[in-house]
């Protein structure tokens, strides 16, 4: 049985550890050495996939559009109000799927479909229907397939949610971030509790099997009291899962964040205390803390997998399947197939241009050799399951030295049986991850899958 979580974190611990970390998976990706990936290399990967048996394929689609830009945003997205621009994106997406499925075989069954962004529900209803038609013309969704989508509650309507559910989506995630008005004004995203509640209840009535809400901590004007109110209001709604992401202020890479006044941001220690508050609130309410920053109900398959030591993370997020192959479409989509990590061009125009020229729009990639693959598996196992048997710890390289230093700080325990993350160490899993960038950040759509 896992040791209990600390009821409070010592001030010295709060001051020593900073949770500063990238806020969004897609744009926080650091390429593995920025290694360009050639058309031939990609064809090679697809050929490997063609020969792989059906049964464990997932598809991610990145929709790179939003109605307005939130000031804290770190996602690859473009503000547009042009229907034509979205239609052209759908044309290019269709072309990308044509090219990939010509190589791996058309209408292969997929176990998982995830639509992220940007704001997927920025598309109007005919465009959403067309998006799904494109998927179904190229892949087969079986009764066992799970389809999920990220939605912005400010763009959702009853008709749209009914359409999305009718298109086969069972899981929906909404970005809540924070319900305090001062915080919302400071991040350029005002959405009332009433509106969020309406959208949530409508989704329940519509029949979605799972409704996830996303929060962000470390935002301007967040205080213990204000954030606690948000946590309580979110709990009252009864979401199936809650993700609590760390805001990373990085205006050099995301210039719109200059509009956020750093004087209003919590200090690193205050930020860590906010996260601790979220952990305490959700776990005391019966949710289980999974991986870095996800809270799920006790009967959730992800918690069961973590308890059994078989939780895994791929470029879509947490999964119970360690060998799922993820194909990605759309600008900045990151695929994880045939032991390769491959990222598409993130610029919408470049992505489109490459496709118009008949080229795969891949920007960089890396095919892992056996040693790297085992190291990566071992680190991911530790991050997800909070322990690593000694037999797998032997696969680690320089990471082992880093973990020994963490052991001196009481963040992990190393014994003959293997490595175990301590209750306090759970709070700095972000840090453990970011020190393994060459292996893990490359697939870190998984780090912060922030909803629209
Ligand atoms: S809705 Fe999401 S993706 Fe769009 S700007 Fe806001 S945070 Fe970024």
Automatic annotation (TrEMBL):
Keywords annotated in UniProt: 4Fe-4S, Cytoplasm, Iron, Iron-sulfur, Metal-binding, Oxidoreductase, Porphyrin biosynthesis, S-adenosyl-L-methionine
Pathway the protein takes part in: Porphyrin-containing compound metabolism; protoporphyrin-IX biosynthesis; protoporphyrinogen-IX from coproporphyrinogen-III (AdoMet route): step 1/1
Cofactor: [4Fe-4S] cluster
Self-association state and partner proteins as the record states: Monomer.
Record-linked Gene3D superfamilies: 1.10.10.920, tm_1862 like domain
Domain of life of the organism encoding this protein: Bacteria
Name of the protein: Coproporphyrinogen-III oxidase
Source species: Allochromatium tepidum
Keyword Oxidoreductase carried by entry: yes
Enzyme superclass (EC): oxidoreductase
Known catalytic reactions: coproporphyrinogen III + 2 S-adenosyl-L-methionine = protoporphyrinogen IX + 2 5'-deoxyadenosine + 2 L-methionine + 2 CO2
Domain Radical SAM core: 51-293
Major localisation: cytoplasm
Annotated SUPFAM superfamilies: Radical SAM enzymes
EC number(s) recorded for this UniProt protein: 1.3.98.3
Protein location: Cytoplasm
């Amino acid at each position: 049985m896992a040791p209990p979580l600390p009821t409070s974190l010592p001030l010295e611990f709060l001051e020593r550890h900073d949770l500063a970390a990238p806020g969004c998976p897609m744009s926080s990706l650091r390429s593995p050495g920025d290694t360009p990936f050639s058309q031939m290399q990609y064809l090679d990967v697809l050929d490997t996939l063609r020969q792989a048996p059906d049964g464990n394929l997932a598809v991610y689609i990145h929709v790179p559009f939003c109605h307005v830009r939130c000031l804290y945003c770190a996602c690859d997205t473009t503000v547009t109000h042009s229907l034509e621009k979205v239609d052209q994106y759908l044309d290019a997406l269709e072309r990308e799927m044509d090219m990939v499925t010509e190589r791996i075989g058309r209408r292969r069954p997929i176990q998982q479909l995830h639509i992220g962004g940007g704001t997927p529900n920025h598309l109007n209803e005919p465009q959403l229907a067309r998006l799904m038609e494109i998927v179904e013309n190229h892949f087969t969704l079986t009764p066992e397939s799970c389809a999920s989508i990220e939605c912005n509650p400010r763009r959702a309507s009853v008709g749209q949610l009914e359409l999305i559910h009718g298109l086969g989506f069972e899981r929906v995630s909404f970005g809540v971030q924070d319900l305090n008005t001062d915080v919302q004004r400071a991040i350029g995203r005002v959405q009332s509790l009433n509106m969020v509640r309406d959208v949530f209840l409508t989704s329940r009535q519509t029949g979605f099997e799972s409704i996830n809400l996303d929060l962000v901590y470390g935002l301007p004007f967040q205080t213990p009291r204000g954030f606690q109110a948000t946590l309580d209001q979110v709990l009252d709604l009864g979401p199936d899962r809650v993700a609590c992401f760390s805001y990373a202020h990085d205006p050099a890479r995301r210039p719109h964040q200059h509009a956020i006044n750093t004087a209003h941001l919590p200090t690193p220690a205050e930020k860590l205390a906010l996260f601790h508050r979220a952990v305490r609130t959700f776990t005391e309410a019966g949710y289980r803390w999974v991986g870095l920053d996800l809270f799920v109900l006790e009967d959730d398959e992800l918690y069961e997998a973590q308890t059994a030591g078989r939780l895994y993370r791929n470029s879509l997020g947490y999964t119970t399947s360690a060998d799922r192959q993820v194909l990605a479409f759309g600008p900045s989509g990151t695929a994880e197939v045939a032991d390769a990590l491959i990222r598409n061009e993130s610029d919408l125009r470049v992505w489109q241009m490459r496709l118009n020229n008949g080229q795969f729009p891949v920007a960089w990639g890396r095919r892992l050799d056996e040693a790297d693959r085992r190291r990566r598996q071992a680190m991911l196992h530790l991050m997800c399951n909070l322990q690593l048997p000694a037999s797998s710890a032997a696969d680690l390289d320089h990471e082992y030295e880093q973990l020994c230093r963490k052991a001196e700080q009481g963040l992990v325990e190393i014994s003959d049986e293997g490595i175990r993350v301590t209750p306090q160490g759970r709070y700095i899993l972000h840090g453990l991850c970011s020190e393994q960038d060459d292996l893990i950040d490359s697939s870190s759509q998984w780090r912060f899958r922030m909803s629209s």
